[in-house]
Amino acid sequence: MTSTARVPDHLDDDALQTVTLTVNGSQRTVAVPTHRTLLDGLREEVGLPGTKSCCAEGECGACTVLLDGKAVNSCLVLCVEAEGHEVTTVEGLSADGLTDLQEEFLAAGAVQCGFCIPGQVVSAEYLLRTNPSPDETQIREALSGNLCRCAGYQRIVRAVQATAARRSER
Ligand code: FES
Ligand code: FES
């Protein structure tokens, strides 16, 4: 005889809530269970797979997005909490083509399997917007929440340094 685990009422997938977010400059309205994360909402409801899903515990940084301009782990934010806020994903950063930061990631050979790169790019972009001339320690600190299984950290740091230098010449 088989038994079916009872889903608690507050996790019932039928309990959908309508949420309106601004994603990459466009208003998007989605209907999600109240326990669904922003990460899931972006990937599954809005259809933006650039934000990666990995640990779902705030440990790896693969899911990093900008929420009202600040880098956050989208796996730790409920979709309903993002109601009325502005979300920028890696797709939004590169809406007009590769950014200078992404170009420098490629030039530095920092992209290996690529899985962590969207999160790294979003975190690095946040750093450069808040501190346009970071030193190496500041770069490593800012990216310390973004894990790279391919261990391309040195090249990632070089890419951020090159972007900072490039922007300082504008
Ligand atoms: S998936 Fe969000 S921090 Fe790992
Ligand atoms: S490039 Fe493979 S996990 Fe970072």
TrEMBL record:
This is Xanthine dehydrogenase. Gene3D superfamilies: 3.10.20.30, [2Fe-2S]-binding domain. It holds the Pfam family Fer2_2. PANTHER family: OXIDOREDUCTASE WITH IRON-SULFUR SUBUNIT, XANTHINE DEHYDROGENASE IRON-SULFUR-BINDING SUBUNIT XDHC-RELATED. Residues 17-93 form the 2Fe-2S ferredoxin-type domain. The keyword Phosphoprotein does not apply. Pathway: Alkaloid degradation; nicotine degradation. It comes from Modestobacter italicus (strain DSM 44449 / CECT 9708 / BC 501). Keywords: 2Fe-2S, Iron, Iron-sulfur, Metal-binding, Oxidoreductase. The keyword RNA-binding does not apply. GO terms for molecular function: 2 iron, 2 sulfur cluster binding; metal ion binding; xanthine dehydrogenase activity. It comes from the Bacteria. Its EC number is 1.17.1.4.
